[in-house]
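WARN retry 2 of 3 for item q-0093 after timeout on previous attempt; input resubmitted unchanged.
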Amino acid sequence: MKHLKKVLLIALVVVFANNINAQDKDNRWVIELGANVVDFYPTGADNPAVGGFFEDFTNTDHWNNSSVISRLRLGYFVGSGFSVGLTGTFNAISNIGEVEVSDLSYVGADIDIKYGFVREPGWFDPYIFAGGGYTWLDSEGNGTANAGLGFNLWFNDWLGFNIQTKYKHSFDEDKMLPHFQHAAGLVFKFGAKDSDGDGIYDKYDACPEVAGLEAFNGCPDTDGDGIQDSEDACPLVAGLAEFNGCPDTDGDGVPDKDDACPNEAGPVELNGCPDRDGDGVADKDDRCPDVAGPAENEGCPWPDSDGDGIPDKDDECPNIAGVAENNGCPIVSAEVQKEITDLARAIYFVTGSSKFTDETEIRMEQVSSIVNQYKTLRFDVEGHTDSTGSDAINSKLSQARADAVRAYLIEKGFPADMITAKGFGSSNPIGDNKTRKGRQQNRRVEIFSEYAER
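OK item q-0093 returned
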């Protein structure tokens, strides 16, 4: 057939136009591929061989067809339901109405404007169309005005099945009678680009090079935790939204990525690590995890050798129980201080000298025995006289007697740097110097500790 080359040319244009995908505002191209039949009978033409308009419309005895693949159409979606298309068909005509003819070649090239009723993609897609074209019946060519209707049944976004019928009105019925042309076949939509093949076109895909989910505009959620990878701080491990997609294995409120002990629950302030003794030092850093202790001592309590509640590091008397107000050292109780005072006031000297009387020795030993229990305390020895004699003599004598007592106590083992001696002369009487008894009271030695209860 001499017009077959025209049909093949149309077919090549259609086949190589583009890659297949989906026809709408995104996928604007469509290819229709299938078979067609031509029926001259139900057209109402002024010819005894045909019937009235639509008479015996479904009578297949009048149909002409040649091969399975005899129709190709390339269409382009314009918008608002409208598309334009170019259709190429060929056929073999063996009857024109009720008249049998020897096989005539039939080649058609038509342009159409199609209107689809469905705006959003769906499985059922009805449409109407109109247009015109040129049809060759053997060697005779003739222009036609065309109109028709049909529908597509979509299997998915890009593949469907098409059925349509078209009335072609001939402008010269002497060359070719008007006729109906029915068609059926497959339809393929294409045009939009989906680089990563995730079903979301690149123009809408926030991650066009990586396959993703529609819920995340085409971006992936690798760990499937409902948080897209771009917003997931731990994209390869399923986690919680409150931790930006990171897991919290031990459920302590610290995400694993920030948890120094991800498999053991612990407080936030210790980076998720436990603290059994509650001393603020994480068990992993605590040398004494079951006994509370300060961080400065690696979680262990400071030693307190004398058990006085004052740690050795702060205890000036670490081996002798004391009190905090004396930095861990003991203090002289009021009872002991009274005993020292009573003994000291019974220390007697030879008149006018700093030499002890014989009976004073035993009292000095008793005083020494007491003060040597407080070697960490500072003691003051005071010498006093009555008012007999001059102030100069009294001051010198009182100093000498205080020195004598200090020297004795040092000799008996009391630290020299912890005891002082001072003479006050007659300046601090405790009795009446006008009486013998008062003067006797004023001639005395006093021994005090600055850490004595008053």
